[in-house]
Amino acid sequence: MAKRVGMEVGIAAAEAVGLCNIDVAAVYPITPQSHIAEHLSNIVADGRINAEFITVESEHSSISSLCGASATGARTYTATSSQGLMFMHELLPIVSAMRLPIVMGIANRAVSGPLSIWNDHSDIMPQRDSGWITMFAENGQEVVDMTIQSFKIAEHKDVMLPASVNIDGFQLTHMVEPIEFPTQKEVNKFLPDRKPFATLHPDKPITMGAFAMPDRFAEVMKAKDVAIVNSKKIILEVWKEWEKQFGRSYNPVETYKAKDADVLLVTMGSMGETAEIAIDELQKKGVSVGLVKIRLWRPFPTEELKAAVKGAKVLAVTDRAVSFGGVSGPVGMEVKSLFYHEKDRPLITNYIMGLGGRDVTVEDFIKMAEKAVEAEKKGITEEYEFYGVRG
Amino acid sequence: MIEIRWHGRGGQGAVTSIEMLALAAIQEGKFAQGFPSFGPERRGAPVAAFNRVDDKQIKIRSGIYKPDVVVVLDPGLIGLVNVTEGLKPDGILLVNTTKTAKELREQLGFQGKIATVDAKKIAWEELGVPITNTTMLGALLKVAPTVKMNSLKAPLEDRFGKIAKKNINALKRAYSEVKISKS
């Protein structure tokens, strides 16, 4: 086992990219992603890796330039956050339609307004339907591991889709914590060179990203959906390979003391481990409660989630973004729709929490779990609740 | 698990302190977190930074509200910031000050352990600047032995290069000069 080293997670994300033999990075700095941008540019400028770091003037340009670079066959990386991701938005579906395996780190942060630099998931949720493989890290180790895994997943011949690793801003990016790094040799063994299906080259001209008449467009959309749905098989394979080589297991849905629990909390991202402590405390008191953590957001792990919550009476789904005027928060809606056809479906409560950096403590998770226990007796009275919010 | 809150002003190096302490603990094979109070920090404005150190994996990622130890880098913050907020009654308050523990106890009404050290004087004499973050790390090791002094050497050398030795001298002096008052 490699020795654990202490490192800020943002720096560690850049170090992980540095192990992945990238060709081009184009990153525009934005809080709380800045340390990833700065450190990756240091790695390139110091000659530690042989890559091009494009100092773009905006996020729109960073993703656009990577489109071009990736189309030539380069391995590419970018990172952003919040407004930066919103600024990339119009390019994101183009990247996936062109089947370009760009990997992006997202230091999740609230979207303005009002202006907030703090963490929630309101930046990634509007990108949900962009056709990107989207996964969430819970700690620094997972940020490093999933960044490396993402290149292999995205570039696989049966996937060829962009992938994002979501890293809670500040809560993860600015945390100094112990991380085990694989060696360069180990990463080289795990991650083969990219073998692109087609490349842009002046000697062999082809067209990529052309327009589509109505008789073609829908087929391209279906092809993209089929590709991302099918990508789960490859994601699972890559995670198995990772476990075999590095001993750390990754699953689309992770569970913690969830077996036979009546009530299950559902989290996504860095709050999962804090919620684990709440589960420990509640189980000590004899409350039948467990935890389910969604790691893979797109493609959504339908079978895995159904299996993970089998037998549960209530799901307390937490959301860190708002779908204004919608049925629930984004994760709440997803989970509710998944169980509609199930005969023995659980009750589903939905708590919107941790917006714009609002801290969520062990006590908060205990309260949410207790509310869910209450809902089991009284039934569901509202589709969602802004947990702990005034007014 | 021990939880520590550092109070300083932007530019006084509280974030460096939490990083050095976390790196030293992790190097010893322990588990540790070091994190700033998240937000846009301005030079001179009151800031806080945090450490958790434990022998087992640390899962909690919410803020620290009931610290075991509070370290005050800048005595001017007392009265401006409630430095004993949430500090456990049996916790430790460590202050860079020329005041006595008795004077601080009267001012703050804190009944637990109070440790004092004139870190500004030490920093002036050893470093030539009134930046007390590394000096206060030395005092912290005495009042709350979270890591071995030797474990701080590598992180400090890595961060400070040529001036690491001066910082280590300041740290050692604070370790021996800090005064602890039980109640």
Structure description:
The complex is a heterodimer of chains A (391) and B (183). Chain A is of the alpha/beta class and 391 residues long. Helix content of chain A is 39%, strand content 18%. Chain A folds into two domains: 4-246, 3-Layer(aba) Sandwich (Rossmann fold), CATH 3.40.50.970; 253-386, Rossmann fold, CATH 3.40.50.920. Chain A has twelve helices and 15 strands. In chain A, the strands form three sheets. A seven-stranded mixed sheet of chain A has the order 3-2-4-5-7-6-12, with helices on both faces. Chain B has helices at residues 14-27, 101-108, 119-127, 133-143, 153-160, 164-177; strands spanning 2-9, 31-36, 46-54, 69-72, 92-96, 113-117, 179-181. Chain B is globular, with a radius of gyration of 15 Å. Chain B has one domain (2-181): Pyruvate-ferredoxin Oxidoreductase, domain 3 (3-Layer(aba) Sandwich). In chain B, helix 1 packs across helix 4, helix 3 (119-127) runs antiparallel to helix 6 and helix 4 crosses helix 6. The A-B interface holds A 4-6, 8, 31-32, 117-119, 170-171, 174-178, 270-271, 273-274, 276-277, 357, 359-362 and B 18-19, 22-23, 25-27, 29, 31-36, 38-40, 58-63, 65, 155.
Compute the average pLDDT of chain B.
Answer: 96
Spatial separation of the terminal alpha carbons of chain B: 23 Å
Strand content of chain A: 15-25%
Would you count the extended β strands of chain A for me? 15
CATH class of chain B: Alpha Beta
CATH class of the largest domain in chain A: Alpha Beta
CATH superfamily of chain B: Pyruvate-ferredoxin oxidoreductase, PFOR, domain III
Q: List the secondary-structure elements of chain A in sequence, H or E.
A: EHEHEHEHHEEHEEHHEEHEEHEHEHE
Task: Give a quick account of the main beta sheet of chain B: strands, pairing sense, barrel closure.
Answer: 7 strands, mixed
Count of folded domains of chain A: 2
Task: Give the class of chain A from helix and strand content and strand pairing.
Answer: alpha/beta
Question: Which strand order do you get reading across the main beta sheet of chain A?
Answer: 3-2-4-5-7-6-12
Largest interface: A-B, 27 and 25 residues
- CATH topology of chain B, what is it called? Pyruvate-ferredoxin Oxidoreductase, domain 3
What proportion of the residues of chain A is helical, as a percent range?
25-40%
Helix content of chain B: 25-40%
Euclidean distance between termini CA atoms of chain A = 51 Å
What structural category arises from helix and sheet content of chain B?
alpha/beta
Write the H/E string of chain B, N to C: EHEEEEHEHHHHE
If helices are DSSP runs of H or I spanning 4 or more residues, what is the number of helices of chain A? 12
